[in-house]
Structure formats: C-alpha cells, structure tokens
Design brief:
0% strand; cyclin-dependent protein serine/threonine kinase inhibitor activity; ANK repeat; 123 residues; Serine Threonine Protein Phosphatase 5, Tetratricopeptide repeat; mainly alpha; 2 domains
C-alpha cells in the first residue's frame, strides 16, 4: 500500500496516532490516494484530532472533489461544528460553491444543523 493510501486510510478511520506517525515519517499531507482523494477529503469528519494534525501539517482546507465539494461542505452537511470551525480557522472558504451552486451553509440548512448554520452565518 502506498504512503498516500496508508495516510488516507488512517485519516478515514479517525486514527490520529497513525496519522501522526505517517506524517512524522514523511507522508505527503496532500497526496491523493488511489481514488484521487486527499486525507483531508476522506478523514473521519467527527475527528477534529485528525483534522488538526492534517491542517497543522499544511493540508489544503479548500481542496475540492470532482463535484466541487470541499471538506467544509462535508463537515457542514454532517453537522460537525468543531470540524467546521477548525476548517474555517485554517482559512477554508465558507462561501465556496459546489457544482450544484450550494455553499456549506446551504447543506447545513438542508440537514437542519442549526449550530453549524449559526456559526457559518456569523462569518
């Protein structure tokens, strides 16, 4: 398994200890896995520890997939307020739109995540 796949797998599992070890061993923080996604895109969204590790090591918080969805879109859609706040603190654009012209706040609103909505409205 490539280091990019290992890092993405550890991020997806929310394994902060393994993510930290792989980054310490030199894994590229924004390397894409065999599915063309970065660790930040596949991370366990509720794992702020993993998100912080990746962002502290220079992960791009504005990376978008083929649909224009960013990690901020994903965190807002799932209602992970701490992850949304963390991504924004690392300069993720709260006004970015996906291919359906939806912003992260639109997805939070659609799913009824009021705390996320309120935070994004305050920006």
């Amino acid at each position: 398994m490539s280091s990019a796949d290992e890092l993405a797998s550890a991020a997806a599992a929310g394994d902060a200890e393994r993510v930290a070890q792989l980054l310490q061993d030199g894994a590229a923080v924004d390397a894409v896995n065999r599915f063309g996604r970065t660790p930040l895109q596949v991370m366990m969204m509720g794992s702020t520890a993993v998100a912080r590790l990746l962002l502290d090591h220079g992960a791009n918080p504005e990376v978008q997939d083929s649909t224009g969805s960013s990690p901020l879109h994903d965190a807002a859609r799932e209602g992970f307020l701490e992850t949304v706040q963390l991504l924004c603190s690392f300069q993720a654009n709260p006004h970015v739109r996906d291919m359906w012209n939806r912003r992260p706040i639109d997805l939070a609103t659609e799913k009824g995540h009021r705390e996320v909505m309120a935070f994004l409205q305050s920006l």
